[in-house]
Amino acid sequence: MWEYTDKVKEHFLNPRNVGEIENPDGAAEVGSLACGDALKLTFKLDENKRIKDAKFKTFGCASAIASSSALTEIIKGMTVDEALKVSNQDIAQYLGGLPDEKMHCSVMGQQALEKAVENYRGAPSLEPGAKIICECFGVTDKEIERAIRENNLATVEDVTNYTKAGGGCGNCQDAIAQILERVKAETTTVAQPKLTNLQKIRLIEETIEREIRPSLKQDGGDIEIIDIIGNRVIVATRGACATCNASGITLKNFVEHRLKELVSSDIIVEEAAK
Amino acid sequence: MKTIYMDNNATTQVAQEVLDVMLPYFRELYGNPSSMHTFGGQVGQKIRAAREQVAALLGALPEEIVFTSCGTESDNSAIRSALTTRPDKKHIVISRVEHPAIRTLCSYLGTQGYKITELPVDKNGILDLENLEKSLTPDTAIVSLMWGNNETGVIFPVEEAARMAHERGILFHTDAVQAAGKIPINMKNNVIDMLSISGHKLHAPKGIGVLYIRRGTKFSPFLIGGHQEKGRRGGTENSAAIIGLGKACELAAQNMEKENSYVRRLRDKLERELLSKITQSRVNGDIQNRLPNTTNISFEFVEGEAILLLMNELGICASSGSACTSGSLQPSHVLRAMGVPFTMAHGSIRFSLSIYNTEEEVDFVIEKMPAIIERLRGMSPFWNKAGQSCDAQ
């Protein structure tokens, strides 16, 4: 049984704003019967261009119904610009939280809102440049990226819990992993403080000692730092690595990859001349 | 609020008679049945009697009964034993609608060098024995097919399937967790090698199961330890639960007739009335070849979890094959194997009754369900369109 908050239960049992507004200013339908949840959102603006009324019809589980109910309550009185700032987190928070596996219900609310506003503005329904990644649930790369950024998601499973992407046939899981890596790379580069040369050298040494050498030693190999010139790390291979034909691949795919990840994304590892 | 429990395929209430025979074995007769002293030894005698009671329900010999901790352990033990005792054979045949205790184990074994064939079922959940015959190869170690399906109640022709496997020297196991106590089982009349049952599905407590192993079948234990169960399952006996299960099996044999008349009648009434009162609903699974206590009904355009939670508000307990209740995003593997459209599968509710259900309870559910479905359909964006088109017909 799901651990729903009292607020979720209350909004499920007594949903606000069920129905459909006639001649709405904005309307959108997201999801499908096959997905297991779907939401139709309609809203009407007053003379000050604020959302006067919002109504929903939802096919789905308790949290989908509660999220829709919460969404309509949240956006009433807002301008469409204000409404567009409402995130899935806001919907979940309004309800006192949702189980991880049910976060996609709040995302569905946020998506319906976005599409309804687009509909109001006469904009295309698919974000420009967006590409469908998950065919089963019709989730685009932009939607996945947004969910990753706003909820700080780390794994494919997280993405599935939040957007449903990857939860059907699973064929797009590799593509989701790539998006995760891309977003992570962007955020880490931004967050990384600039290192002084000395700090960088020390960090490289520490990283090799702690993260890289133990793995190499398990296979009877080792490396030694010969020099560090700017972003180039010159190393010599030792032990089994020295005689291994694949050591070049190990240096690029493992050593350089780890250093890029943990020290700086511009690092290049080179093998010293033998 | 009174609880109306119609989820007996999930678990059952321990019968009062069962609890009564168990209680002395916690505080008073707590001895170890393997002990040399009378204090422990007398428990051993009670376990022997329980073994006979279980054997009687199955038409088996007492020595063919091995007590385990649950249905899952029995299933795992059976499959693993078959693979261990036939190390040269690497192929397993199951169906697409098996319980996770078999299916998940086999998908794991699939990553360990074994080849798994999952037999399809038709739209009514029925297995075609011709497909079974075609799937059997000289490399097949074991066939495992469930006797009665937990979600739909559909009964597989396991006795015939076992003969087919046997003709080719292949072992046959059946998960009879849902069938035991609901339909007659007589191991004297078939060639099934191994059979699993679970205590808590027939009014014994949770934490006790049985693996029937036909006399003469080579067996390799799953739990290796002491000499308990003649070395076929190590670990100190769960005396109280074993003694309780013995009583439960005796009661099940006595109630078999009631299960197939009284319970069947209640189930049929529930099903008939719900289908007639609620439009766009249908039964999943073959209605002839079915356990007497189970009905699986789909209500189109509404979602199972939401239905269950509204039922819960009235104290009615059932379960659903919808994706939202499982935590995965796909509806039940059983309904998908039957080709039930997603739109129907998401709104599926399983009612599973027992002899403890009353006519009043069934009437209450029949009275309350239409409003629940109507309320959710009123919120569903698909209902108006479909509802109208349906009225127009």
Series of H and E elements of chain A: HEEEHHHHEEHHHHEEHHE
CATH topology of the largest domain in chain A: Sufe protein. Chain: A
- Oligomer state of the chains in this structure: heterodimer
Q: Which chains share the greatest interface?
A: A-B, 30 and 26 residues
> What is the molecular shape of chain B?
globular
Question: Could you describe the 3D structure shown?
Answer:
The complex is a heterodimer of chains A (274) and B (393). Chain A is α+β, with helices and mostly antiparallel strands and 274 residues long. Chain A is built from 11 helices and 8 strands. In chain A, the strands form 3 sheets. A 3-stranded antiparallel sheet of chain A has the order 1-2-3, with helices on one face. In chain A, a hairpin with a 4-residue loop joins strand 1 and strand 2 (37-45). The radius of gyration of chain A is 25 Å and the shape is elongated. The N and C termini of chain A lie far apart (63 Å). Chain B folds into 2 domains: 4-10 and 256-382, Alpha-Beta Complex (Aspartate Aminotransferase, domain 1); 16-252, Aspartate Aminotransferase, domain 2 (3-Layer(aba) Sandwich). Chain B has 14 helices and 13 strands. In chain B, the strands form 3 sheets. In chain B, strands 2-8-7-6-5-3-4 form a 7-stranded mixed sheet, sandwiched between helices. A 4-stranded antiparallel sheet of chain B has the order 9-10-13-12, with helices on one face. In chain B, helix 1 packs antiparallel against helix 8 and helix 8 (239-277) packs across helix 13 (359-379). The longest helix of chain B is centred in the middle third of the chain and has 39 residues, at 239-277. In chain B, 50% of the residues are buried. Residues 388-393 of chain B have low confidence and may be disordered.
